[in-house]
Design a protein that fits this description.
two-stranded antiparallel sheet
C-alpha cells in the first residue's frame, strides 16, 4: 500500500518558513555590521572632538592674538566639516538600499578599509591598494559594502602581526573585479568544500554566516565569487575575487535617430 503523500500546502509553508529564516539571518548580519560601523565611527568622532577641545583651549589661552585665533577657528571649522562627512558616510551605509544605483566601487572599498582602520593599525598590517581611478557599477551600495567589509574582516583576523593585505578594484568591459588577498595562515583544507555554507566556521566565536551572506549578496547581483587558499608554510594566504556585471552606459543608451 502506497504511503500518503504530504499535502502540497505543507511544502509551500516550509518554503515560506525557510525564506523567512534566510531573511532574518540577513538582517541579523546587517545589524552586526552596523554595530561594527558604529564602533569605528565613534572612534573617528572621538578623535575629532578631542581636536576641537584642544583648539577651544588654545583659542581661550591666546585670546590676545586675533590672527592666531583665526587659524584655530579655521582648523575647528575643518574638524566640524570632517565630523559631518564621517556621520553622513556612516548613515548612508547603515541605511538599506532598496534599489541598485551606479556607484564607484573603488570609493566603496576605500570606505570599507577606513571602517577597519583601528584593527589594521593595531596589528600594523601593511595595506596595499591597486585600483582603477574609478570603477562604476550599478549595485545596491549597502549590500556590496557589507560583502567587502566581511571579506576584509576575515583577512584582518587571519593575518599575523605586520601581515600584508592587498585590495584591488578594476573594471573590464563587462564586469568589475574586487580582489582581497592576505598572507595569513590560509583556510583549513577541511573547511574548503563547505566554505560558503551557512553555520560553517573555524572560529570559536564565529557563527558561519559571513561568507554565506557574501555569496548571497554577490549572486543576488548576478555576480560570482571565487577564492584560492594555501596553508603551505612560507606561501600561505587566501585570495577572494568578486566579479560583478557592469552595465555600460554606452551600451544601454538608445542610439539617436538620424
Amino acid at each position: 500500500m502506497d504511503s500518503a503523500s504530504p499535502p502540497r500546502g505543507s511544502f509551500d509553508d516550509e518554503g515560506q518558513k525557510l525564506k523567512a529564516c534566510e531573511e532574518n539571518l540577513r538582517r541579523y548580519h546587517q545589524l552586526a555590521m552596523a554595530g561594527r560601523l558604529v564602533g569605528a565611527t565613534m572612534h573617528e568622532v572621538n578623535n575629532r572632538l578631542a581636536a576641537l577641545t584642544n583648539l577651544i583651549f588654545l583659542a581661550r589661552t591666546f585670546a590676545a592674538s586675533p590672527l592666531q585665533n583665526v587659524d584655530y577657528l579655521d582648523e575647528a571649522d575643518s574638524q566640524l566639516r570632517s565630523l559631518g562627512e564621517i556621520t553622513g558616510r556612516s548613515l548612508s551605509f547603515i541605511r538599506l538600499d532598496m534599489e541598485a544605483k551606479e556607484i564607484d566601487l573603488v570609493d566603496l572599498a576605500n570606505s570599507a578599509l577606513r571602517l577597519h582602520h583601528e584593527q589594521i593599525a593595531k596589528k600594523r598590517i601593511n595595506v596595499q591598494t591597486r585600483s582603477s581611478e574609478a570603477a562604476l557599477a550599478c549595485v545596491k551600495k549597502g549590500e556590496i559594502f557589507q560583502a567587502i567589509t566581511n571579506l576584509l574582516l576575515n583577512s584582518i583576523e587571519a593575518l599575523p602581526h605586520s601581515g600584508k593585505l592587498h585590495v584591488r578594484v578594476v573594471t573590464h568591459p563587462y564586469n568589475a573585479i574586487i580582489t582581497i588577498a592576505d598572507n595569513g595562515a590560509g583556510i583549513p583544507e577541511s573547511m574548503r568544500r563547505t566554505l560558503f555554507d551557512s553555520f560553517k566556521s573555524n572560529k570559536s566565536e564565529g557563527n558561519g554566516l559571513g561568507l554565506w551572506i557574501v555569496k548571497e549578496i554577490v549572486h543576488g547581483h548576478g555576480g560570482t565569487i571565487r577564492y584560492r587558499s594555501s596553508s603551505v608554510f612560507g606561501r600561505s594566504g587566501t585570495v577572494f575575487r568578486i566579479l560583478l556585471p557592469v552595465q555600460s552606459l554606452e551600451r544601454t543608451t538608445l542610439p539617436e535617430e538620424s
